[in-house]
Design goal:
CATH class of the largest domain: Alpha Beta
Distance between the termini: 24 Å
Mean pLDDT: 94
Strand content: 15-25%
Strand order of the largest sheet: 3-2-1-7-23
Low-confidence stretches: none
Helix content: 10-25%
CATH architecture of the largest domain: 3-Layer(bba) Sandwich
CATH topology of the largest domain: FAD/NAD(P)-binding domain
Shape: globular
Length: 423
C-alpha cells in the first residue's frame, strides 16, 4: 500500500484525502489549524488567514459543491462563511476523514529522497517527527502570505493587510482607505462604509463590476447557460449587459475599465455600485505618496485617513519546500494541469489555480487524477515540459500581466480538461 502525505485540510485537502483513500492509498494529512476548512474557518486570530465574519462565497452553491457531496437544499444561493464551514466539516464527517488528519501540526520541511519518496518533518507541541512517504500532495492554499504594496513616504496611521481584517466594527468612526480592486477589497469597502466616517477605495485601473444576480439568476448560473456562444462574442455581450444594468462606469462614479471583462478576475459585487451612488464610498486613483495621515493620489488630490487596508493579494509560497526545488512566488507557475511539475516525481499541487468560478470542484477532479496516477490507472504524457509551456502560452482567458493573474483558469474549460483525462 502506497503512503501519501497531504499538506492542509482545507477544501482541496479534504478532497485529496477522500479520493486518495478511496483507491486504497494510506493517507496522512497534516494541518496547523484545529479543524478542517482552511480559509473558510472564520477566526479572530489575525495569524490565521480566514475569511472575515460577513463573507459570502462569490460563486453560487449550484456550481460550488463537490460532485459526491451536494450542498444542503436549504442553503441560500450564495452561502455564508459559517455555512461553508459546516459544509466542509460535514464532508469530513460523512466520509470519516478525521482519523487521517493530524491537527495543530506544522510541516517544517519536505525533502525528496532517492526513488521518488519524500521525508516530511513536522512539529507539534514542541515534538519533532520525521516520516517517509511515497508521494506528497500539497494543498496549503495560496491565500495566506500577505503581499503588501510599497509607496513613497510614510503613513502615521494604522496600515494593515486584508489578511488581518475580521469585521467592520473596529473601524467605526474612522476614515478608511481600502487599496485594491478585487472582491475582498470591495467587500471590505462596503462593510467599513457602514460604520466609518468615510471610506474610499484606491484602484490602479477601472474594473467591470458584475452583480451577483443577473436577470434574476446567480451570475454564474446565467453564464453557464451561454457557454455555447464563442468566448469573444460572449464576453462582448457580458460587457453590453453590464452597461445596461449598471450604466457606464464614468457615469456612476467609477473609472472606466481599460480591458475586456475577462482580462481580470471577475469583480462580483451587488452592493459596491449602490454604496458609490449613495456617496458612502468614493473610488480614488492609485496612491502617489504617503505623508503622515495624508494620502496623495496620482490625480493630484489628497485626503486624510486613520486606517489603510491593503487588499493587495498574496504571495504563492511553500515554506516547507526548498526554494531551489519549488519557487512560484514570481512569474508563471509551471505545472501540468496546474498540478504536476515536469521533473519532480511524486509531487502534486491541488487547488493551486484561480478559476473564473469555484476552486474546490476542480481540486476534487485533480485529486481523482492523482489517485489514478498513484495506482497506475493513468500516466501523464512524457513531454511534460512542452505541454506546460503550451499551457502557459495559451491560457484559457488571456489576462493582464499582474501577479494575481498567474494561475487563472476558465472554470468550465479547466474542469473539462480534467474530466477528459479521467475517462
Amino acid at each position: 500500500m502506497k503512503s501519501v502525505c497531504v499538506i492542509g485540510s482545507g477544501p482541496s485537502g479534504i478532497a485529496a484525502i477522500k479520493n486518495l483513500r478511496d483507491v486504497g492509498l494510506a493517507v496522512t494529512c497534516y494541518d496547523r489549524q484545529s479543524d478542517v476548512g482552511g480559509n473558510w474557518r472564520f477566526s479572530e486570530d489575525t495569524g490565521h488567514s480566514s475569511v472575515f465574519e460577513t463573507t459570502h462565497i462569490i460563486s453560487s452553491k449550484y456550481h460550488s459543491a463537490y460532485a459526491d457531496y451536494p450542498m444542503p437544499k436549504d442553503f441560500p444561493d450564495y452561502p455564508s462563511q459559517s455555512q461553508l464551514r459546516a459544509y466542509f466539516e460535514g464532508y469530513a464527517k460523512h466520509f470519516n476523514l478525521y482519523p487521517q488528519i493530524q491537527f495543530e501540526t506544522l510541516v517544517q520541511s519536505c525533502k525528496p529522497l532517492e526513488g521518488g519518496r519524500w521525508r516530511v518533518s513536522t512539529e507539534k507541541n514542541g515534538v519533532l517527527e520525521h516520516k517517509d512517504f511515497d508521494a506528497l500532495v500539497v494543498c496549503n492554499g495560496h491565500h495566506w502570505k500577505p503581499r503588501l504594496p510599497e509607496y513613497a513616504g510614510e503613513f502615521s496611521g494604522q496600515f494593515l493587510h486584508s489578511h488581518a481584517f475580521k469585521r467592520a466594527e473596529p473601524f467605526r468612526g474612522q476614515r478608511v482607505l481600502v487599496i485594491g480592486g478585487g472582491n475582498s477589497a470591495c467587500d471590505i469597502a462596503v462593510e467599513t462604509s457602514r460604520v466609518s466616517t468615510y471610506t474610499d477605495v484606491s484602484w490602479r485601473r477601472g474594473y467591470w463590476v458584475v452583480p451577483k444576480f443577473v436577470l434574476g439568476q446567480p451570475a454564474d448560473v446565467l453564464s453557464r447557460g451561454v457557454t455555447w456562444i464563442p468566448r469573444q462574442l460572449r464576453f462582448w455581450l457580458y460587457e453590453r449587459l453590464m452597461i445596461l444594468l449598471n450604466g457606464r462606469n464614468r457615469d456612476i462614479g467609477l473609472p472606466e475599465p481599460d480591458h475586456s471583462i475577462g482580462q481580470t478576475h471577475i469583480l462580483l459585487n451587488s452592493e459596491l455600485v449602490y454604496f458609490v451612488r449613495h456617496g458612502k464610498i468614493k473610488v480614488r486613483p492609485e496612491i502617489a505618496r504617503l505623508e503622515g495621515q495624508t494620502v496623495h493620489f496620482t490625480d493630484g488630490t489628497s485626503r486624510d485617513y486613520d486606517t489603510i487596508i491593503a487588499a493587495t493579494g498574496y504571495w504563492i509560497d511553500h515554506p516547507f519546500l526548498d526554494k531551489s526545488l519549488v519557487d512560484f512566488s514570481k512569474g508563471a507557475v509551471p505545472l501540468y494541469l496546474k498540478m504536476i511539475p515536469a521533473k519532480i516525481p511524486n509531487l502534486y499541487f491541488l487547488g493551486l489555480f484561480q478559476p473564473l468560478g469555484c476552486i474546490w470542484p476542480g481540486a476534487e477532479l485533480q485529486a481523482k487524477l492523482v489517485a489514478k496516477h498513484l495506482t497506475g490507472q493513468w500516466n501523464p504524457p512524457d513531454d511534460l515540459e512542452i505541454l506546460i509551456k503550451a499551457e502557459l502560452q495559451n491560457p484559457d482567458v488571456p489576462q493582464i500581466n499582474t501577479p494575481r493573474h498567474t494561475i487563472t483558469v476558465d472554470d468550465v474549460a479547466f474542469r473539462a480538461r480534467l474530466k477528459a483525462q479521467l475517462q
